[in-house]
Every structure is written in structure tokens, then in C-alpha cells.
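ASSEMBLY PREDICTION REQUEST
Request ID: AP-0331
Submitted by: J.K., bench scientist
Number of chains: two
Total residues: 438
Priority: normal
Notes: Please return the full assembly, not individual chains.
Input sequences:
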Amino acid sequence: MTAALILIAYSLALTTLAPRILRDPARLARAPRLGVAVWYSVVASAALGLAAAAALLVATPEHSWEKLCHLVRLCVEALQGAHDWFGMIAALAAVAGATVAAVRLTIAAYRTVAASARGRLRQARLVGRAGRRLPGTDATIVDDQVAAAYLVPGRHATIVVTSAAVDALSGPELAAVIAHERGHHSGRHHLLVDGMRVLTRAFPRSRMLARAHGQVALLVEICADDAAAVRHDRLDLARALVTMAEAASASPAGALAATGGDAATRVRRLLTPPRPLRRGTALVAAALLGVLVVAPVVMAVVATVWPALMDCPGLG
Amino acid sequence: MRGFGELEAVIMERLWAAEGWRTVREVLTELLEQRQLAYTTVMTVLDNLHKKGWLRKESAGKANRYTPVMTKEEYGAAQMRRALSDSGDPAVALLKFVGQMSPEEAAGLRAALDAHEGRDAR
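STATUS: Completed
Returned structure:
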């Protein structure tokens, strides 16, 4: 019981503190891929903490090795009231919470995947019908007065640029924009964003998930900027970004979803790129993330095994 | 507004290329050069396209004649408007090069870029 409460406290602390500590995206932007990993690790760690706590509450172990292995039997026993009434209520609450979470996640995942697949297929078809290949590139050009560029991700991946964007951008700028979208495609960035979209849909009131979603969306843009900057001038990409931002702000849909802060972060980063993390630092950070993810599981296992170990003859 | 089915698309292409009225028989004759089709099939497809509002119909003696309501360019533009309005739909989840923002925010970006380039020029 104590171990379960500690795990719940751990998860709550993580969900409260992480969004505050990681508020400024510029910090994670220095190593954007690692930044995405940070957010996924934080979310996984908090979720595993709650899951482990639920498992502990359901399977209150008698202090013997044999019973540890029989999670299912313990679960049934707990529900039949083999343990004390408080433990039973806690076990019921844990089962109920886990079920609700699982159902919400399943529905959100289904809705997100179905809606994106449908929408992306329709986009790909429309663009395929109304667009034409931009000579010398793998992009499709469609006629429109608003300068824009986007990737239709997934199986029917298509890079789309509008005719207004082709007119507004110089050759090198346009090439950098196309490289940016290609970076999204080869990095499978839509999957990273979709994952967070599923989580925020399943738990719309979580502030941590909202922030994680927003920052992952920004970090994949930065990843794509970096991918484009390998072969293209950062300044060209920055100029293209500003030109396209002006076009987007002038179009009537302007105020729908303001992401001006994201664009500002990207422009600043393109103009004065931060020193990349040293390899050693990045490796240490990645290892720490691994620890973060397994920590709640280790805690739960230790809490379960420890009393039994104490009972072993010759130990404790 | 929905896209065309496969045979519908072929027939619309023919009618757009024809520029003018065509009877079922005329469309069928042209299509028979490429594929085996029944008269009734072509007639049904043409009638469906008329019901969906893509074709105008008038009777010419015993048979009916059809012509497209909008030109191919108008159709392409309409499709495109739909594609672009879709691209603003978060459910579709495209990866846009730059998101929406206010004119003030865009002006701020331009100022930052100009300041940087001014510094470079010096």
C-alpha cells in the first residue's frame, strides 16, 4: 500500500513539475530529437508509475514467493474480499481507473487514426487530381493565392506547395522549404505528433499532455529545419519562413490556431544556431531518460520483492 | 463536393476535351477505342453525373446530350479550394511549413530577420 502511494505521488509530482521545468521550448530545441524523447519519456514514466501503483493495489502480496507470480489469482482474491476492506476498495478503484484509462485511450487512438487516415487519403487524392509536378523536384504544385507548403504524411506522402509560394520565394528558398517537408517525411514526424494527439484527446484536461503535445509539434518542426539546413542555407530557410508567415497571417483563417511563438523560436534558431550538444552529454541524457522510464517499474518490483526477500531463510 | 469515380473521371475528361455537347452514343464510340463498355453503362454514368450536378442535359431527338457544367480549370480550382480548406483542419493533421499567426507576430519575425541581415551586411 505504501509503495503504491509513493508511486502515485511520484506520477503526480512528475506531471506537475515537468511542464514547469520544461516550459521554455528553447532549452529542448538545442537537441530537438532528444527533446522529443524527453517528453515521451516523461509521459511514459508518469503513466508507468500509475500503472504500477494500480498493479500493486490489486495484487497486495502475502509475503511469500509463490503468490508473487499469480497476479491474476491475487486480483480475483482482492475483488472477492480476501484482503481487508480498505485494500478491496483501493483495488476496485485501481481496476476502475485502469479500465477508464484504457477505454479512453482506445477510443482516442481509433478516432485519431481513422480521421487522419481518411483526411490524408482525401488530401492526397485531391492534390493528385488538382496539382501538377513542380519541375525538377518531388513536390506537387497547386494553384492558390495564399503562399503555403505542407506535407500530406503517411502512405500517400505528398509535398504540396501553392503557386503563390513558388512566386513569392526565390529558387534556393523554395528548395529549402521542400527539403524541410522532406525532413518531416523521412523522420516519420507525423507519427510522433499523432502519438501526442491521441494522448491529449484521451486526457484533454491534462496540462502536462497539452504542453507535451505543443512542444513535440514545435520540436519536429525544428528537426525538419535542421534536416533542411544540412544541404541548404539556414538564412534561405529563415527568409522563406518569414515570407510564408506573412502570407499565413494575411489569410482570413489567420487567428484560428496561433503558432506565432513557434515560428519565432524557429527563426531565432535559424539565424543564430545554438551549439549542438556534445556527444557525451547527449548520451548521458539519453541514459537518464531510460532510467526515468524504468524507475517506476523498478520501484514496484522492489516493493513487491523486498518483503519476500526478507522472509527468505538466511537473509534479512 | 466529392471526387469522381474511375469511369466518371474518364468520361469527364472526354467531355472536357470535346468542348460542346455529346450524346451517349458519341461518348461510347470514343471510349470503345480503349475499353469494352456497354451502352447502358455509359448512359447510367452520364445520368449519374447529371444528377450530381456535373453535367447539363438536354434532349436531342430521341437521345440526350450532355455537356460539363464547369470547365476543367474551374473544377480543378474548386477541388483545390477544398484541399486547402481541409489543410487547415486539425483532424487531417498535415505537417504545414508554418502555422497560423497574427499580423503582429509575422511583423515581429520580419523585424528579427531584417535586424540579422542588417548586421550581416555591416
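REVIEWER COMMENTS: Residues 63 and 307 of chain A are 6 Å apart (CA to CA).
SIGN-OFF: pending second reviewer
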